[in-house]
Design goal:
Bifunctional 2',3'-cyclic-nucleotide 2'-phosphodiesterase/3'-nucleotidase; Calcineurin-like_PHP; 5'-nucleotidase,  domain 2; 38 strands; 714 residues; 2 domains; alpha+beta; nucleotide-binding; Purple Acid Phosphatase, chain A, domain 2
């Protein structure tokens, strides 16, 4: 039986995570190597003074005897075409199914992407396939496997049952891989029939000497690939793959990772390892960063570092992700001055692709290589995206791929079990709950969460030294259109099941409580108010209220206080938490009818992501945590709904929002925002005198609504 990752660490010390207890055992416990030439660099300290093992084991797919044949002579000018394919940010979406709405959804699912993979592979002579992480978390199926069913030694996660049918060559670790802890991650990936890599996550050995740090995963692998050149001759191409994850995992999953691992700068590790890969014989190097594309000035430990990876000498292609966006695509238009070619799909001349999320696109880079005096060199590239569906003008969806039978068969058992689990009623609510207008109104989908956290926190601090402090609660709209015009919470009144709770709170976060003063509370809200564009009063020009570059999961509402947001003022902070003005958007901040003072002390219930610095909120850090709860926010919400429902068994819990925040009045402005185009959203808007549907849609399918800011909504 395989010893688990954390057990090895306890028995043998941190090095056992990589080498086992025996000096002769070179197996990497995090993921056994299969079918690749791999370096032993994962066993080497980072310091270049430590020699790397230059011996490269032969690809398991290519049996050899002890006598190695001489390298064939390749004629200069020989051309070779290679297709590199990528999936990323699948978030446990195996099937074309929406567990929240309990119906088929042909806009998502590896079961669709798999068909495109097989077609794209069959269309060329030479291809490889990579996955870029955020794989095991993000849908109810992921939660069911991690939190309900679990994995025992020998169990195969349905995600890997499905992916093992597709002949992936390599996979990279994403930040959400850590959400369920290292032990679950280890058990999940140990049945993948492809190697895992990540070059910037290291075992925390407790010292301050970076020269002896050991990688948690293989930093990179070099695989020998038998390919056919343009002349029809077989060649051996040595392809190097190197992966990266945002260093912010140490904030976002502090509870799972602190004291166990550390994370380093993506670009620094690329500059360290890429020369080693070239020295080890890699003909081409493909970087797989779980990291988005930003052209702003480079900063240490940057979350989105793909742009600066393009400047690392030796990287030939970048298969990136994390941002849930498409590259090439409209989001990245206008960056020519930064060296971004949005037609060809290159960044500073380096081929790159990012294929969206939830399996909605397959990313492809077609590379032409030419052999010369310096070996194989990239001669030309073209990046493309292949979507699994198209949305028509009438909002109907046309599928562009049939379900892949092998993936469907591999996923079906877990899929059916998940459907049963998420649909089991456990409580009732007396009115519908949705997030259609969560960015412009105090909203019941947030109110339920903040009320639940408030109830839980007041219960656990009662009778302690914290028990006399006023408690606030922070919540944000997780589903407010980030995944497209259909990505909104929508829960009917009546019976409520787990799928509804997962709809309200989609992340497996853990509840934390911070101790803050009034000044820090106000700055928290100033950061949240960056959700809105600055509005000019007394202007006939149409002005868009919501800043779509500001992620809705960072628009925190703080319940327990009352306040207004003055959008005529400039935002004080940008999306990264940098102060960009002296704007003062938060007005009339009161607690129980009295103005909040800078010195006043509060407890604020939130989640581990925010409490550990996620979102870059000013002054918010884990040092201010005073209640380190082990309970998941989502479970707290479920418990609260059940409790409130039990108090009124006939109609259930009342989910109404308390309207504790509103916009400060703005005179004479023609203001619009975008939301769901569904009939239900339009019908729900009739409850609000200040919101009017315009019966128009944007190019990407969102409905346009007008909002009257001349008076507070409440």
């Amino acid at each position: 039986m395989k010893l688990k990752l954390l057990t090895l660490a306890m028995l043998c010390g941190s090095a056992a995570l990589l080498t086992g207890c025996s000096d002769n055992d070179n197996k990497v416990e995090v993921k056994p190597p299969t079918n690749e030439q791999q370096t032993d660099d994962s066993k080497q300290p980072v310091d270049d003074k430590q020699p790397a093992d230059d011996k490269q084991p032969t690809d398991d797919k290519q049996p050899t005897d002890d006598k190695q044949p001489e390298e064939p002579v390749i004629a200069p000018g020989t051309l070779l075409e290679l297709r590199v394919m990528e999936t990323t940010d699948l978030h446990a979406n195996l099937m074309n199914f929406n567990y929240f709405s309990n119906k088929e959804d042909n806009k998502v699912g590896l079961v669709k992407t798999a068909t495109l993979i097989r077609q794209a592979r069959d269309a060329v002579k030479n291809s490889v396939l990579v996955d870029n992480g955020d794989l095991i978390q993000g849908s109810p199926l992921g939660d069911y496997m991690a939190k309900i069913k679990g994995l025992e030694d020998g169990d195969v996660h349905p995600i890997y049952e499905a992916m093992n049918t597709l002949d992936y060559d390599v996979a990279n670790i994403g930040n959400h891989e850590f959400n369920f802890g290292l032990e679950f991650l280890d058990e999940a990936i140990d049945d993948a029939k492809f190697p895992y890599i990540s070059a910037n996550v290291f075992i925390d050995d407790g010292d301050d000497d970076p020269s002896n740090d050991l990688s948690l995963f293989k930093p990179y692998v070099i695989q020998e690939k038998q390919v056919v050149d343009k002349n029809g001759d077989t060649q051996t191409l040595k392809i190097g793959y190197i992966g990266f994850v945002p260093p912010q995992i140490m904030q976002w999953d502090k509870a799972n990772l602190e004291g166990k691992v550390i994370a380093k700068d993506i670009v620094d590790m690329a500059e360290h390892y890429v020369p080693k890969m070239k020295a080890a014989g890699a003909d081409i190097i493909i970087a797989i960063p779980h990291s988005g594309l930003e052209t702003a000035e480079k900063k240490p430990l940057a979350e989105n570092a793909s742009y600066y990876l393009s400047k690392v000498d030796g990287i030939d292609a970048i298969m990136f992700g994390h941002a849930h966006a498409n590259f090439p695509g409209p989001r990245y238009a206008g960056l020519e001055e930064h060296g971004v070619d949005n037609e060809k799909g290159t960044i500073n001349g380096v081929a790159a692709v990012m294929p969206g999320f939830w399996g909605n696109n397959l990313g492809i880079i077609d590379m032409t290589l030419e052999y010369g005096k310096d070996g194989w060199q990239v001669k030309n590239t073209q990046s493309t995206l292949q979507p699994i569906s198209v949305t028509n003008e009438d909002r109907t969806v046309t599928s562009l791929a049939i379900n892949d039978a092998q993936v469907e068969n591999a996923a079906m058992s877990a899929h059916e079990e998940t459907k049963t689990w998420v649909n089991e009623p456990f409580a009732k609510i007396s009115d519908e709950v949705n997030s259609y207008f969560a960015l412009v109104n105090d909203d019941p989908s947030i109110q339920i969460v903040t009320d639940a956290q408030l109830w839980y926190t007041q219960t656990i601090v009662q009778g302690t030294e914290l028990g006399e402090l006023p408690v606030l609660s922070a919540g944000a709209p997780f589903r407010a259109g980030r995944g497209g015009p259909d990505d909104f919470t929508a829960v009917e009144k009546g019976d409520i099941a787990y799928r509804n709770v997962a709809d309200l709170y989609i992340y497996p976060n853990v509840l934390k409580v911070l101790k803050l003063n009034g000044a820090e509370v106000k700055q928290w809200l100033e950061m949240s108010a960056g959700q809105f564009n600055q509005i000019t009063p007394n202007s006939e020009e149409v002005q868009v209220l919501v800043n779509t570059n500001f992620p809705s999961y960072n628009f925190d509402v703080l319940d327990g206080v009352s306040y207004q947001i003055d959008v005529t003022e400039p935002a004080r902070y940008d999306t990264k938490g940098n102060k960009v003005s002296d704007g003062n958007r938060i007005k009339a901040l009161t607690y129980q009818g009295e103005l909040v003072t800078d010195e006043q002390v509060f407890l604020v219930a939130t989640n581990n992501y925010r409490a550990s610095g996620g979102g870059n909120f000013p002054g918010i850090s884990s040092e201010k945590i005073v209640v380190d709860s082990p309970n998941e926010n989502r479970q707290v919400v479920a418990d609260y709904i059940a409790l409130q429902s039990s108090k009124n068994t006939e109609t259930g819990m009342d989910p109404s929002a308390d309207s504790n925040w509103s916009f400060a009045p703005v005179a004479g402005a023609n203001v619009v925002f975008y939301s769901s185009p569904s009939d239900k959203a339009v019908a729900f808007s009739a409850r609000f005198a200040h919101i009017t549907p315009l019966n128009q849609t944007t190019d990407d399918g969102f409905a346009i609504y007008q909002i009257d800011l001349t008076q507070p909504a409440n």
